[in-house]
Amino acid sequence: MRAEQILHPTEAGLYCPPGDFHIDPIRPVPRALITHGHGDHARAGHGSVLATAQTLDIMAIRYGSDFADQRQVADGEIRVGDVTVSFHPAGHILGSAQIAVTPDNGPKIVVSGDYCRRPNPVCAPFEPVPCDIFVTEATFGLPVFHHPDPAHEMVRLLSSMAEFPERPHLIGAYALGKAQRVIALAREAGIDGPIAIHGALQRLCDYHIAQGIDLGELIPATAEDVPAQLVIAPPSAFASPWVQRFRDPVIGFASGWMQVRARARQRGVELPLVISDHVDWPQVIQTIAELAPAEVWITHGTEDGLMRWCELNAIPARPLRLVGYEDEPE
């Protein structure tokens, strides 16, 4: 069986005919396998959903308990139609997984979803999965993207808090994954006091805590005089009246895109923190070299740079040109 017969792009997303399922479909389908809970990968309305237990929980938190007609927890090797699938940690956010698709007769394909190779205190680390075809993202798929150690960015945050002790530090971080990671990194860096969070983060932070992730003392950022110097909020809050309650705040944003200074300026960010839950250029190259697949497929992001690198290294590659995926969704 040829690779294109096992998995190929459609208008609804990646489709596996022998298993009759889609992976991270962008519209409702009868059967969906979901890599993780971000809104550009996990949508409501499918007939059935197969995902990790944590991703299913997160989808229920975000979309309600009736987000799909049927739900199945991914555990071990699972037979779906005429293929076997298995889920492996992706290191992206809590519950994130790569999906390995193994037909009875044909190449093994691993769909990585979104993934990261740096240690992340709020999720399981990336697990390299040997395969014939590796399907990779290329969100930061250009040689210019070399993300610093997140611990270094925490040193910058602490230095700013020490330099401006009277100014609240408002850090924008996406509600699922990034917010909890920034909080956990701040704790590792030595911030022991209360951290204030926007109400939109409360349920997902509570779920991380219930999963055994220590986020320390969190207080709501609702009072007129919030008794915390560090405040975490979703980026959308910075365009709302909510931000006006803080006097002379230091505005920060945690994202891999903060390496691009023009983006920081456009957002009015005074303290850009380059913290990404995606692989940067060295990490994606490291991963491909480590796995040594016979072929690389590229799902979304900056495809041309990675395509050229594969060509120079004699690795067959193809862009899938899937639509409907954002770089870092809110």
UniProtKB/TrEMBL annotation:
InterPro entries: MBL, RibonucZ/Hydroxyglut_hydro, Xnuc_lig_assoc. Keywords: Exonuclease, Hydrolase, Ligase, Nuclease. It is an enzyme of class 3 (hydrolase). Its EC number is 3.1.-.-. One of its GO terms (molecular function) is exonuclease activity. The keyword Hydrolase applies. This is Ligase-associated DNA damage response exonuclease. It comes from Paracoccus caeni.
